[in-house]
Amino acid sequence: MSDATTGSRAPRPAETAQDAGSRAPRPAESAVEVRGVDKVFETRTGQVQALDGIDLTVAAGEFVSLIGPSGCGKSTLMRLIADLDDPTAGTLTVFGKSSRQARLDQEYGIAFQQAGLLPWRTVAANVALPLELHGVASADRRSRVAQLLEMVGLGDFADRYPDQLSGGMQQRVAIARALAEQPRLLLMDEPFGALDEMTREKMQTELVRISAETGAAVVFVTHSIPEAVFLSDRVVVMSPRPGRIQQIVPMRLGADAARAARTEELREERTFFDMVTAVREALHGGSPVASGARGVETR
Ligand SMILES: Nc1ncnc2c1ncn2[C@@H]1O[C@H](COP(=O)(O)OP(=O)(O)OP(=O)(O)O)[C@@H](O)[C@H]1O
Ligand SMILES: [Mg+2]
Question: Which end of the chain has fewer CB atoms < 10 Å from its terminal CB, N or C?
């Protein structure tokens, strides 16, 4: 298995050394394999090439973030992995299965830009949906839903309906739903975009804990460099349209940077700022970025 593959133009960072470092040993099976994927949209005004020659392997249990300018194809790539659309060329597999089979087998949980809740179901019933579909007994369902809602800070809102919640609260319901079944893979497209900064950092910490505890692989789209650095084992930097992988930056966050050990203190450490700078430079095409406060990036 090729461990990480960059786009054709990209320099290859020294990922092998990093992967042999502090991370937990990787199981042989990969969570996601993307090989030579192109996506061209036919529109009334002509063709739009959204993705060009994407090669990416996400190992089981690995946390990979996608970052890049608006319109570079991040959501398109996520939709292809989730079998919500078909590639124009290339192949995608999820745990060795076709993306279609993986969808049918409910191999992953999804939390996308839009919360996508069912308006006629209460908050609790939305979170319970995947459990219902998998035939989990109702008593177990209730306790699991209560636990999940507590985790996302919505314990008091179980009986509300989605339109009675703020956008950020709806997003948290969608995250709880994605986690309900403890899937081996989470596909998350800007799931924290609608959250205030405090809640966002809390959810990041929770996600780190959950993914470490459950060993779930995560593919995570974000526009926030610090968010990507805090969460990820590797950050995939994409170029403007047509979306290509420009560089894959392994997160070197020090000896105790196993995901389970990522705590609030990490956000203030030197290695954290160094990684923020590395991702910023990759986004800017690999050259040092002149700016005032080194390593400081808002969202
Ligand atoms: N269904 C579609 N039909 C035509 N063009 C599309 C379609 N979906 C996406 N595109 C185009 O493909 C490109 C990539 O879109 P995509 O939504 O994947 O970008 P993105 O990286 O997720 O952007 P953002 O950061 O703004 O969410 C854009 O140019 C977009 O206009
Ligand atoms: Mg998008």
Answer: N
